[in-house]
Records
---
Amino acid sequence: MAIAQLIPGSAAAPMTTPKVEASHLTKWFTNPQAGHDIEVLRDVSVSVAPGEFLSIVGPSGCGKTTLLRIFAGLIPVSSGAVLYDGAPVSGPSSKMGFVFQSDNLLPWRRIHDNVAFGPELRGERRDSMEPRIQSLLRLVGLSGFERYYPHQLSGGMRQRVNLARALAIQPDVLLMDEPFAALDAQTREIMQDELLRIWQETGNTVIFITHQIDEAIFLADRIMVLGARPGRIREVIPVDLPRPRSLEMKRHPEFTRLADHVWSSIEQEVRESIRGEQEVVASAHQRALAHLDED
Amino acid sequence: MSADVTTARLAAPSTTFSPLPLLRRAINANRSLLTSVGSLGFGFLLWEIAADLIVRDKLFLVAPSAVVVRIAQLLGTGELQHHIVASGLEFVIGFVIAAFVGVGVGLLMGTCKPARIALTPWVAAIYSTPLIALSPLLILWFGIGITSKVVVVFAVSVFPVLVNTQTGIEGADERLLEMARAFGANTRQTFTKVLLPAAVPFIVAGLRLGVGRGLVGVVAAELFGAREGLGFLITAASQVFDMGALFGAVVILALAGVLSTAAIRALEQRIAPWRGA
């Protein structure tokens, strides 16, 4: 286990080049109907050290997923810059593995071939990728399920395949977009535990989006709290909990203190965001009723 | 279900009336098959009764038993085989060309925007036209032989294949496409590894529709002018009031529909085994 992983990321100022860095990142989308631009992210600056685990929390509509897509090179920034190992990101990188919120497994591929998807795209030879795929399937506890199709697996198992697929390209960075959101509470806790184990085994840098505060604290070295409309950094909170972490730590007083801290940081935003959504729903409802009246 | 009840209540046999649980289980396992066979058998029985006892006029309604006898006679002389081969050849050639062209053009329209824009009005216009009605014209153009029939089969079965293929490509899950992009797939890889497999179930559904329309097409084209084939047999038989042969040809066509649909289902099982959810 590397020493860097024992020291929470922000406590020691990173001396090396950041693994991923955003500087004054701003993103807006053009909305052809409204005729004006919608600002999604405003002036986001953050450095993620090699081997660091960063959690991002924020209310819905704060641009979390957009930020992660920008890190992945799937969409460009509007202004500012994203650097990977000090170099600008211009498109999907072979060094970043993306773990999706919905597992996005290819339904026509068996589990083994889903994990092999990334290496296969790069033209890697079967015999060179095979040992790695086997060990990844062992790592995520799915040995023996190679020949199953995704629809034959449970949600938790599919998420583990999703993770193994991202790891199969041997990434430096794992970008994870609420990967456990759709799982039940018990499965989610087990997956959190497994993720930390895998992270410590691989030494990856992880950027992990979640809307669950306890999940963010349990996993991360630092928590980045985003505010909504437009998304901007409200606070970056270091997590000074020892590693390796165990599920009992969630009842630790320091854990509770951190949870209160994070919650107070986003509470107002969440309330506003809920109110905003309620208004949207209410007006949609009213429009629907108006339609019915016309008919 | 009831088999479970039987075993669970062995202690109280008076509540069940299943002296032969094994037979019961066998019936349960094949229930859908037995139901469809039974339904067909019942229909034939009604037909037989209606023909023999109610209508009693072979010109109006010939009994299924008489149809079977006539089919056997025609098989004996080799006449039926000759017509089956003739129609079968026309159908297979026309349908195979339609399958390749339909899938090809459908893939093109699904992936290439200029092609889609240029071809959509043509497809929309021709797809909804009753092309079979043009058979006399096609016979005028291509003669009374096999070519005109192949053209009709092609024309009626190419569009369902084409439209379904295009729909399958366009309906591919956006999230899977983004996943492929995140993993660095290029255009060709996105096509072969995401778009094409996603479209396979739609393509198979299109082929199934095409088979039905193609079978109708081949017979209809033969009705308008032919020297051989099942459509010709139907025309010839009706002119001499040979109702047994007429119904016989229709039965063969129904059988061909059932068999080709089963063949395409088997094909789907082979190339899309993940569909058995």
---
Amino acid sequence: MSVQPGSSLWLLRHELRLFWFSLSSGKAGAPRRPAWRVLGGGLLVWLALHAGVFALLHAIGPTGGMPPRQFVIAVSALLLSTFLFMLSSALKRSVETLFDRGDMDLLLSSPLPSRSIFTVKLAGMAFGVAALYLFFLAPFAHVGLLLGQLRWLALYPVLFALALLAASLAMLLTLALVRVLGARRTRVVAQVVGALAGALLYLLSQAGNLMAQSGGVAATASARVMASLQSVDPGSLLFLPARAALGDGAAVAMIAALGLLAGLLTVRWTHRFFVRGLQQAAGNARVVRRAGPVRYRFDRGLLQLVMVKEWRLVWRDPHLVSQILLQLLYLLPICFVVFRDNQLQMTVVGGGLTMLCGSLSASLAWIILLGEDAPDLLQSSPARALTVRMAKLGAAVIPVGALVALPLLWLILRAPLAGVLAALTMLGATVSAALVNAWTGRPATRGEFRNRGQRGVATRLLELCSVLAWSALAWLLQRAAAGAPATLAFAAGLGAAAAIALGILPLAWLLRRRVR
Amino acid sequence: MPDTPALALTGLSKHFGRPAVDGLDLTVRRGEFYALLGPNGAGKTTTLRMVAGLLAPDAGRIAVLGIDLALEPIAAKRRIAYLPDDPMLYGKLKPYEYLEFVAGLWGIESQAAEPRARELLAWLDLDKHAHELTEGFSRGMKQKLALAGALIHAPELLILDEPLTGLDAGAARQVKDLLLTHVQQGGTVILTTHILEVAERLAGRIGIIQHGRLIAEGTLDELRALSDKAPGATLEDLFLRLTGPA
């Protein structure tokens, strides 16, 4: 198909081509298309999903009319969480579009109208946001078509409309932040808002669960919400997305119109400010920053020197710091446990703090050991590589120790045995996660931190297994210290957790020899 | 041993699918300003990266001031400095902090390193930017700071890959003056450049490399004689004649 060069369609084709190339291995000399193994594997999973959905829909059979209210409420909740995840992902993509730029300099310096550029970028964002959900839900539409249950076809327009709405909202929010806060702060704030949006339902549910267990207010509040929803008219706008997803034609038309309208209005109103936002973001990279008084000491030893340098680099990068700390968002519910009824829940706290140590240590080790900005400088210097590496390991694990020192001390004072056990598992998780990264990780730039799992799948898997195993071990040891009955199952669990936690490091060592 | 060359490469080879450096023999004397020229992809950067210890050669020997780089890498690295075309800096450090780090890597005593850092930053007009993070520096300022880092331990052999790329006239003059001073004080400089006038004006000897091999070497007059060019021929004429299609 021939399209007019410079048109939105032409640009969209270019973006799709780049997206296709981005799925390749990225190695020099490798073909630009994705590996056939990856494509074939993905296709097999997709076909398996279709088969599963076929069995499900065949068993349910055709249903007429609107499903029961409880089902509509459940679908509404599912769509709300889907939308929040989409918004979170769209915020991440809008920040990337503005700050990571890619080909934006080339596009902006070309005579293409800013409206075309913005339209295509927004469409690309919406497509990227919808892709994951389409992968899992599109089989319902396809199988529904095959079985004559046409209502499932509504999933396509609903998901695209929600994705377009999320992309528009995310772009508007990011541009508003640029206008109000400036380009520099926007990156961090948009990222925090994105993570909060993604974790909102989880955090609320965890807080509710924990408070409900102690007879708190949240149980009553949840019951009230459910009761209010039961009394809401099914034709209410509140259930519009759910009705659309379940195949109500009028609702589908309204949701699709809403998504399109959001996209069109966003393009119409903000395409010029998008260009200004890009220009501000570009200028931000060259802003002269005075970072307090000049403090330097030429009499530091190599170990101390490397550690100070690493801490300076991390501390002065708020974008990176926020990325590290956001990973800990999902551990917040521990706080609810700790302060619940003023009773110390050692099992949960021990496991939670161990998980915190492992996660933090893994992130810092990746940044400090693998994300070295000037590897050639270190390699061309006469400094011993082992000394530099040890200093970097120290720089990764010492802040973790400093962060958990106070809570740990408090635990030890309250319950000495449990506190000492927690200290041991925390130490194990911290050192293990750092060493897994040190031994099996591949060098990268710090900007790749957010997507580090894609570059080193084995490292990420080992790191996750290590953190989870040490956390499980901590939880089981705390239960044993609290006098849990020594059943065979308990002993087996304890043994398995210990074996995995301690076995990860030798495995990482073996993989290290293969990787390097 | 004053007769020992600053750099001696013997049969140096490196392959990346095809030969990048192919049995290169090269000797640079102490106190010499040597320019290594060649078309794109000739193997200049690969050669310098091997000398700096960043790439392991497939074959051949590298001796830095008489020290075998493969046998005593740390002793050899102590006496050299390498400045790539893309400065090796940390954006979140300030100039003094960067020099403090580099001095530490080379194990320089603080009594020597601190005044040297002050002197270099003042010399390169960077002292007034001491409070700023280097991520906000222009290309020229970054290049000058990287050069200060390379000179902080007063290396006997200074290796520079395209040090003048992207510098304005003022910054380029400062860098050239600093390099000439380094040679006058007894140091050795090896640089690659595509700006042939720089090589013509600064270098005592010039080596021309193509397809990973040294195809010509000597002073400007010696190169003129080699290429049968008239006495007034510029280095550009000679270079194009020597590296052009036969």
